[in-house]
Fold this protein.
Amino acid sequence: KAGVTQTPRYLIKTRGQQVTLSCSPISGHRSVSWYQQTPGQGLQFLFEYFSETQRNKGNFPGRFSGRQFSNSRSEMNVSTLELGDSALYLCASSPGGTLNQPQHFGDGTRLSIL
Amino acid sequence: GESVGLHLPTLSVQEGDNSIINCAYSNSASDYFIWYKQESGKGPQFIIDIRSNMDKRQGQRVTVLLNKTVKHLSLQIAATQPGDSAVYFCAENTDGGSQGNLIFGKGTKLSVKP
Protein backbone atom coordinates (compact mmCIF):
# COMPACT_ATOMS: atom_id res chain seq x y z
CA LYS A 1 0.00 0.00 0.00
CA ALA A 2 1.40 3.40 -0.95
CA GLY A 3 2.02 5.81 1.90
CA VAL A 4 0.99 9.42 2.31
CA THR A 5 2.28 11.53 -0.56
CA GLN A 6 2.93 15.24 -0.30
CA THR A 7 3.79 17.60 -3.13
CA PRO A 8 5.88 19.56 -3.68
CA ARG A 9 8.73 18.53 -1.37
CA TYR A 10 10.31 21.97 -1.38
CA LEU A 11 8.92 25.41 -2.05
CA ILE A 12 10.35 28.91 -1.90
CA LYS A 13 8.05 31.91 -1.74
CA THR A 14 8.30 35.57 -0.82
CA ARG A 15 6.37 37.52 1.77
CA GLY A 16 2.84 38.41 0.75
CA GLN A 17 2.44 35.53 -1.72
CA GLN A 18 0.13 32.61 -1.24
CA VAL A 19 0.86 28.91 -1.52
CA THR A 20 -1.06 25.66 -1.96
CA LEU A 21 0.26 22.33 -0.71
CA SER A 22 -1.13 18.97 -1.70
CA CYS A 23 -1.58 15.69 0.15
CA SER A 24 -2.70 12.28 -1.08
CA PRO A 25 -3.66 9.99 1.83
CA ILE A 26 -3.23 6.26 2.10
CA SER A 27 -5.85 4.50 0.01
CA GLY A 28 -9.03 4.01 2.03
CA HIS A 29 -8.19 6.65 4.61
CA ARG A 30 -10.85 9.32 5.02
CA SER A 31 -9.21 11.53 7.62
CA VAL A 32 -6.45 13.94 6.64
CA SER A 33 -4.70 16.20 9.14
CA TRP A 34 -2.15 18.94 8.64
CA TYR A 35 0.64 19.92 11.01
CA GLN A 36 3.27 22.63 11.05
CA GLN A 37 6.74 21.72 12.31
CA THR A 38 9.27 24.37 13.32
CA PRO A 39 12.40 24.16 15.51
CA GLY A 40 10.90 26.58 18.01
CA GLN A 41 7.32 25.38 18.29
CA GLY A 42 7.67 21.74 17.35
CA LEU A 43 4.75 19.91 15.77
CA GLN A 44 1.52 21.87 15.91
CA PHE A 45 -1.88 20.75 14.70
CA LEU A 46 -3.43 22.93 11.99
CA PHE A 47 -6.68 21.20 11.03
CA GLU A 48 -8.29 17.90 10.16
CA TYR A 49 -10.64 17.01 7.35
CA PHE A 50 -12.93 14.02 7.31
CA SER A 51 -15.34 13.24 4.49
CA GLU A 52 -14.74 16.65 2.90
CA THR A 53 -15.59 18.54 6.11
CA GLN A 54 -13.28 20.26 8.54
CA ARG A 55 -13.70 18.28 11.74
CA ASN A 56 -11.07 19.83 14.01
CA LYS A 57 -9.11 23.06 13.93
CA GLY A 58 -5.97 24.15 15.73
CA ASN A 59 -4.97 27.59 16.88
CA PHE A 60 -3.75 29.17 13.67
CA PRO A 61 -4.88 32.39 11.95
CA GLY A 62 -7.42 32.40 9.17
CA ARG A 63 -4.63 32.77 6.58
CA PHE A 64 -4.28 29.01 6.93
CA SER A 65 -7.06 27.09 5.25
CA GLY A 66 -7.66 23.74 3.68
CA ARG A 67 -10.06 21.55 1.86
CA GLN A 68 -10.65 17.92 1.08
CA PHE A 69 -11.93 16.41 -2.12
CA SER A 70 -14.29 13.49 -2.65
CA ASN A 71 -11.33 11.15 -3.22
CA SER A 72 -9.95 12.20 0.22
CA ARG A 73 -7.05 14.11 -1.26
CA SER A 74 -6.45 17.35 0.58
CA GLU A 75 -4.94 20.74 -0.07
CA MET A 76 -3.72 23.35 2.33
CA ASN A 77 -3.49 27.02 1.46
CA VAL A 78 -1.61 29.81 3.18
CA SER A 79 -2.32 33.37 2.07
CA THR A 80 -0.31 36.54 2.65
CA LEU A 81 2.80 34.60 3.59
CA GLU A 82 4.95 35.82 6.47
CA LEU A 83 8.55 35.01 7.32
CA GLY A 84 7.32 33.05 10.32
CA ASP A 85 5.44 30.66 8.05
CA SER A 86 8.72 29.05 7.06
CA ALA A 87 8.33 25.49 8.26
CA LEU A 88 7.91 21.86 7.38
CA TYR A 89 4.25 21.18 6.68
CA LEU A 90 3.22 17.61 7.35
CA CYS A 91 0.13 15.77 6.28
CA ALA A 92 -1.13 12.67 8.05
CA SER A 93 -3.94 10.28 7.26
CA SER A 94 -5.93 7.69 9.16
CA PRO A 95 -9.08 5.68 8.50
CA GLY A 96 -11.03 8.09 10.71
CA GLY A 97 -14.11 7.42 12.78
CA THR A 98 -12.83 4.39 14.66
CA LEU A 99 -10.78 4.03 17.80
CA ASN A 100 -7.09 3.25 18.07
CA GLN A 101 -6.22 4.46 14.62
CA PRO A 102 -2.75 6.05 14.51
CA GLN A 103 -2.06 8.68 11.94
CA HIS A 104 0.52 7.97 9.27
CA PHE A 105 2.60 10.85 8.00
CA GLY A 106 4.03 11.92 4.69
CA ASP A 107 7.55 13.33 4.41
CA GLY A 108 6.27 16.90 4.30
CA THR A 109 6.66 20.03 2.23
CA ARG A 110 9.51 22.30 3.24
CA LEU A 111 8.30 25.88 2.78
CA SER A 112 10.84 28.71 2.88
CA ILE A 113 9.74 32.33 2.88
CA LEU A 114 12.22 34.94 1.67
CA GLY B 1 -5.20 22.11 25.79
CA GLU B 2 -1.67 22.08 27.04
CA SER B 3 1.03 20.44 24.97
CA VAL B 4 2.78 17.25 25.93
CA GLY B 5 6.28 17.87 27.21
CA LEU B 6 9.51 15.88 27.36
CA HIS B 7 12.03 15.77 30.20
CA LEU B 8 15.21 15.36 28.13
CA PRO B 9 15.90 16.97 24.78
CA THR B 10 18.85 14.65 23.96
CA LEU B 11 19.80 11.13 24.90
CA SER B 12 23.07 9.43 24.00
CA VAL B 13 23.41 5.65 24.43
CA GLN B 14 25.86 2.93 23.50
CA GLU B 15 24.90 0.46 20.81
CA GLY B 16 23.38 -2.61 22.41
CA ASP B 17 22.19 -0.80 25.52
CA ASN B 18 18.55 -0.18 26.33
CA SER B 19 17.11 3.30 25.84
CA ILE B 20 14.33 4.96 27.79
CA ILE B 21 12.64 8.08 26.48
CA ASN B 22 10.24 9.89 28.78
CA CYS B 23 7.22 12.08 28.23
CA ALA B 24 4.92 14.00 30.56
CA TYR B 25 1.40 14.91 29.52
CA SER B 26 -0.88 17.39 31.20
CA ASN B 27 -4.36 16.68 29.88
CA SER B 28 -6.00 14.12 32.13
CA ALA B 29 -8.72 13.65 29.51
CA SER B 30 -6.24 12.19 27.02
CA ASP B 31 -7.01 8.54 26.36
CA TYR B 32 -4.79 7.59 23.47
CA PHE B 33 -1.03 7.97 23.16
CA ILE B 34 1.39 7.39 20.31
CA TRP B 35 5.14 7.32 19.88
CA TYR B 36 6.66 8.46 16.62
CA LYS B 37 10.20 8.33 15.27
CA GLN B 38 11.41 11.02 12.91
CA GLU B 39 14.59 10.66 10.90
CA SER B 40 16.27 13.57 9.20
CA GLY B 41 14.41 14.68 6.10
CA LYS B 42 11.44 12.38 6.73
CA GLY B 43 8.05 12.59 8.32
CA PRO B 44 7.22 11.02 11.69
CA GLN B 45 6.97 7.24 11.55
CA PHE B 46 4.52 5.38 13.78
CA ILE B 47 6.21 3.16 16.37
CA ILE B 48 3.64 2.06 18.91
CA ASP B 49 0.43 3.27 20.56
CA ILE B 50 -1.41 2.65 23.80
CA ARG B 51 -4.91 3.30 25.15
CA SER B 52 -5.49 4.73 28.59
CA ASN B 53 -7.05 1.46 29.77
CA MET B 54 -3.64 -0.19 29.47
CA ASP B 55 -0.43 0.24 31.48
CA LYS B 56 1.97 -1.45 29.12
CA ARG B 57 2.20 -2.50 25.53
CA GLN B 58 5.01 -4.28 23.76
CA GLY B 59 6.11 -4.29 20.16
CA GLN B 60 9.20 -5.47 18.39
CA ARG B 61 12.08 -4.27 20.60
CA VAL B 62 9.90 -1.46 21.95
CA THR B 63 7.72 -1.16 25.02
CA VAL B 64 5.49 1.73 25.99
CA LEU B 65 4.56 2.29 29.63
CA LEU B 66 1.73 4.52 30.75
CA ASN B 67 1.38 5.83 34.29
CA LYS B 68 -1.90 7.72 34.49
CA THR B 69 -1.43 8.60 38.15
CA VAL B 70 1.52 10.88 37.39
CA LYS B 71 0.61 11.46 33.72
CA HIS B 72 3.80 9.92 32.45
CA LEU B 73 4.59 7.99 29.31
CA SER B 74 7.82 6.23 28.42
CA LEU B 75 9.26 4.41 25.44
CA GLN B 76 11.78 1.68 26.03
CA ILE B 77 13.95 0.47 23.17
CA ALA B 78 15.79 -2.78 23.75
CA ALA B 79 19.28 -3.42 22.33
CA THR B 80 19.49 0.01 20.74
CA GLN B 81 20.97 0.04 17.26
CA PRO B 82 22.52 2.84 15.16
CA GLY B 83 19.39 2.80 13.01
CA ASP B 84 17.41 3.90 16.06
CA SER B 85 19.13 7.29 15.99
CA ALA B 86 16.37 9.83 15.40
CA VAL B 87 14.07 12.27 17.16
CA TYR B 88 11.27 10.61 19.10
CA PHE B 89 7.95 12.31 19.76
CA CYS B 90 5.12 11.36 22.02
CA ALA B 91 1.62 12.48 21.06
CA GLU B 92 -1.73 12.44 22.83
CA ASN B 93 -5.35 12.46 21.76
CA THR B 94 -8.59 12.88 23.69
CA ASP B 95 -10.85 11.04 21.28
CA GLY B 96 -9.48 7.54 21.62
CA GLY B 97 -7.53 7.97 18.44
CA SER B 98 -10.68 8.35 16.35
CA GLN B 99 -9.91 11.90 15.29
CA GLY B 100 -6.81 13.44 13.84
CA ASN B 101 -5.96 16.24 16.24
CA LEU B 102 -2.85 15.04 17.99
CA ILE B 103 -0.93 17.12 20.51
CA PHE B 104 2.80 16.49 20.26
CA GLY B 105 5.64 16.78 22.70
CA LYS B 106 8.79 18.70 21.79
CA GLY B 107 10.80 15.61 20.97
CA THR B 108 13.89 13.81 22.24
CA LYS B 109 16.90 13.25 20.07
CA LEU B 110 18.36 9.78 20.48
CA SER B 111 22.00 9.34 19.47
CA VAL B 112 23.43 5.82 19.37
CA LYS B 113 27.20 5.45 19.66
CA PRO B 114 28.72 2.42 17.89
Remarks:
- The first strand of chain A starts at residue 5 and ends at 7.
